[in-house]
Write a structure and sequence with these properties.
Blueprint (H helix, E strand, L loop, with lengths): L6 H24 L6 H14 L2 E3 L12 E4 L2 E3 L13 E10 L2 E10 L5 H19 L7 H14 L3 E2 L5 E3 L6 E5 L16 E4 L2 E3 L5 E3 L6 E3 L5 E3 L2 E6 L2 E4 L5
Helix pairs in contact: 1-2, 3-4
Length: 249
């Protein structure tokens, strides 16, 4: 069931989103060769606690960490580890913040040190795809308009869009209806309404969109070993368009 959010609920989620955005800004300054994703995870848990918040995904279906940390060919839900990041890697840090009952969800892919021009272009395309999807999140449009905008742009740049993981509604719980596909046909799917809060979070692969699951039953990675990137925002649909609750600017 889809619930339209009240102004009070949206304000709580916006406060969580602002803290999440600040967390990402701090992570951006930490990313460098030699740091481990477990160190980043520990920082996030400590920083959220200092600000009266908790990592909502920790304990979700037994997930043991405050963040998902997906490196290189890992698509999503990577486990933070003691393995040091190295020059040229990319790493996606994904988290859900709970601040006073308001939830916000955002993922960001970071370049570790200097990356190749090819890799930098892929990150740029993935980030652009997120905002192309957000542009379509206006009352009266349909979910398919979001997916089509993302898919047509990404495939036009000769990359692929992951099918197995999607955006979603968010509110009192981390995952709510509707499911937000990052591919699809314009004019198809549920009509968007003012007051809906959703995540848009395209995962873009350098090669095929197909995935395989690690033995931990959480971490998804590309079947061809090529890179995967992701950018995600939580947005609320207002009468004049989408408002980004997790904006880092």
């Amino acid at each position: 069931m889809i619930t339209l959010k009240s102004e009070r609920e949206i304000e709580l989620m916006h406060e969580a989103g602002k803290l999440l955005a600040e967390t990402h800004r701090k992570i951006a300054k930490m990313i460098k060769p030699g740091i481990t994703t477990l160190e980043i995870d520990a920082f996030v848990e400590r920083f959220l606690a200092e600000n009266g918040a908790t990592p909502e995904q920790k304990g979700y279906h037994g997930f043991p960490f405050a963040t998902c940390a997906s490196v290189n060919d890992e698509i999503c839900h990577g486990f933070p580890s003691t393995k040091a990041l190295k020059e040229g890697d990319i790493v996606t840090i994904d988290m859900v913040v709970n601040l006073n009952g308001g939830l916000a969800d955002s993922a960001w892919t970071y370049a570790v040190g200097e990356v190749s021009e090819k890799t930098a272009h892929m990150l740029e395309v993935t980030k652009n795809a997120l905002y192309k999807g957000i542009e379509q999140a206006v009352p009266g449009n349909r979910l398919g308009d979001i997916g089509h905008a993302i898919q047509s742009y990404v495939e036009g740049e000769k990359y692929s869009v992951v099918r197995d993981f999607t955006g979603h509604g968010i509110g009192k719980t981390m995952h709510e209806d509707p499911t937000v596909l990052h591919y699809g046909k314009p004019g198809k799917g549920m009509r968007l309404k003012e007051g809906m809060v959703i995540t848009i979070e395209p995962m873009v692969n350098e090669g095929t969109w197909h995935m395989k699951m690690d033995r931990n039953d959480w971490t998804a990675r590309t079947t061809d070993g090529k890179l995967s990137a992701q950018y995600e925002h939580t947005i609320v649909i207002k009468k004049d368009g989408a408002f980004i609750l997790t904006d880092q600017d």
